[in-house]
From TrEMBL:
Stored SUPFAM superfamilies: Microbial ribonucleases (SSF53933)
KW Signal (keyword) present: yes
Pfam family, one: Ribonuclease
InterPro entries per UniProt: N1-like, Ribonuclease/ribotoxin
Signal peptide location: 1-30
Species, as recorded: Streptomyces showdoensis
Coiled-coil regions, chain positions: none
Signal is among the record's keywords: yes
Protein name (database record): Guanine-specific ribonuclease N1 and T1
Region (Disordered): 30-65
Length: 164
């Protein structure tokens, strides 16, 4: 419990520092742009904080791809097992685990806050694990997708690869 509080405090401090440093430069720090992976996760939104508005990729006519202020990961940079899980989600299954597709309650409050039932979770196989392992894909009703490889301690928002 103390370790979790310490991590939250550090994440909050990092988030505030990032907010201060990027507040005067239009929202992105030098060398980064929306849709690129960032270092550490920022603090979880509070219950009363609305989710960050979607941000555009900057490509004219492109649909918004950001639903949170979490670090991002390009879909193509995910482990192969996570990409397979995303393909199964898009195809509607079948899923290998009985708990796939169940409601994710976001008890950790790392993801943007929404009403119960907004998020659903899916297992990402971990080679060598006998059980479900720690990796998950969590999807939101509005099309948002998140990846965790540490059993909900942290998440990265999955950003679709740019069309080539």
């Amino acid at each position: 419990m103390i370790l979790r509080c310490a991590r939250l405090g550090l994440a909050l401090l990092a988030g505030l520092s990032l907010l201060f440093l990027t507040g005067c430069s239009g929202g992105t720090s030098a060398g980064t742009s929306p849709g690129t992976a960032t270092g550490t996760a920022t603090a979880a939104p509070s219950r009363t904080t609305a989710a960050a508005p979607p941000q555009s990729t900057g490509t004219p006519g492109a649909a918004p791809t950001r639903f949170s202020r979490l670090p991002t990961v390009q879909e193509g940079a995910l482990p192969a097992e996570a990409r397979r899980t995303l393909a199964l989600i898009r195809a509607g299954g079948p899923f290998p685990y009985a708990k796939d597709g169940t409601v994710f309650s976001n008890f950790e409050r790392v993801l943007p806050q929404h009403k119960r039932g907004y998020y659903h979770e899916y297992t990402v196989r971990t080679p060598g694990e006998r059980d479900r392992g720690a990796r998950r894909i969590v999807t939101g009703r509005d099309g948002d997708v998140y990846y965790t490889d540490d059993h909900y301690e942290s998440f990265r928002e999955v950003v679709a690869d740019e069309a080539r």
